[in-house]
């Protein structure tokens, strides 16, 4: 990826964050009770570790969510992932996401999530010398899950999945969401 593409990505991510933040704070200013706004905000996300036999992968994905009503919520998220296989490759992925949640029943959660990720893969030269990659990858997930309190278990599907460019090995992914 060219330096100008990375700069454009960073500016787009910053602009998305600022627009969302401005929208949230505008809503807070217009409400008769500023605390009502913050009572509808939840923070959460996910963290994950995977390791064994020279392999390591770590994920950190904080999110902020605004509950518009008991049925609808929207939010933003950040994503950072690092993976490595000894003497094979390292991969660094970072980006942001826009999240939409719909709860037709208290236990059922339907979701959409758009992620834009910057992917940097560096392969060890003894295995592959020309497959190093540096690119942007968009993902659009549609999901469904079972919600119990502040935890949701479910599955999501990336409708933009590209086998050659995705950081996942398939379009279907289980998930667990935590909100506080």
Provide a descriptive summary of the structure in words:
The protein has an eight-stranded antiparallel beta barrel. The chain is α+β, with helices and mostly antiparallel strands. A hairpin with a 2-residue loop joins strand 1 and strand 2. The mean pLDDT is 81. It contains two helices and eight strands.
Comma- or semicolon-separated keywords:
180 residues; alpha+beta; Porin; eight-stranded antiparallel β-barrel; 2 helices; 58% strand; elongated
Strand order of the largest sheet: 1-2-3-4-5-6-7-8
β-strand amount: over 45%
- End-to-end Cα distance, whole Å, is 37 Å
Q: What portion of residues is helical?
A: 10-25%
Mean pLDDT, to the nearest integer, reads 81
The CATH topology is given as Porin
Please tally the β strands and state the result: 8
Major sheet attributes: 8 strands, antiparallel, barrel
Overall 3D form = elongated
* CATH architecture annotation: Beta Barrel
Number of helices: 2
Gyration radius, in Å? 18 Å
Domain module tally: 1
From the helix content, strand content and strand pairing, which structural class follows? alpha+beta
CATH class: Mainly Beta
Short description:
The protein is an alpha+beta fold and 180 residues long. The protein has helices at 3-30, 34-39, and strands at 41-52, 55-67, 72-85, 89-105, 108-123, 133-148, 151-158, 172-179. It has one domain (41-179): Porin (Beta Barrel), CATH 2.40.160.
Topology:
Layout: H1 3-30, H2 34-39, E1 41-52, E2 55-67, E3 72-85, E4 89-105, E5 108-123, E6 133-148, E7 151-158, E8 172-179
Antiparallel strand pairs: 1-2, 1-8, 2-3, 3-4, 4-5, 5-6, 6-7, 7-8
């Amino acid at each position: 990826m060219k330096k100008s593409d990375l700069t454009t990505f960073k500016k787009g991510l910053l602009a998305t964050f600022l627009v969302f933040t401005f929208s949230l704070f505008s809503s807070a200013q217009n409400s008769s009770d500023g605390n009502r706004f913050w009572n509808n905000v939840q923070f959460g996300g996910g963290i994950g570790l995977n390791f064994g036999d020279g392999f390591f992968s770590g994920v950190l994905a904080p999110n902020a969510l605004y509950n518009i009503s008991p049925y609808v919520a929207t939010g933003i998220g950040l994503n950072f992932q690092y993976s490595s296989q000894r003497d094979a490759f390292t991969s660094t992925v970072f980006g942001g996401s826009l999240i939409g949640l719909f709860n037709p029943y208290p236990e059922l959660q339907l979701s959409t999530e758009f992620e834009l990720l910057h992917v940097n893969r560096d392969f060890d030269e003894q295995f592959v010398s020309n497959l190093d990659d540096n690119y942007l990858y968009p993902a659009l997930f549609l999901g469904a899950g079972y919600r119990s309190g502040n935890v949701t278990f479910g599955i999501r599907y990336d409708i933009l999945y590209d086998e050659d460019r995705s950081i996942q090995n398939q379009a279907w992914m289980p998930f667990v969401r935590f909100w506080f």
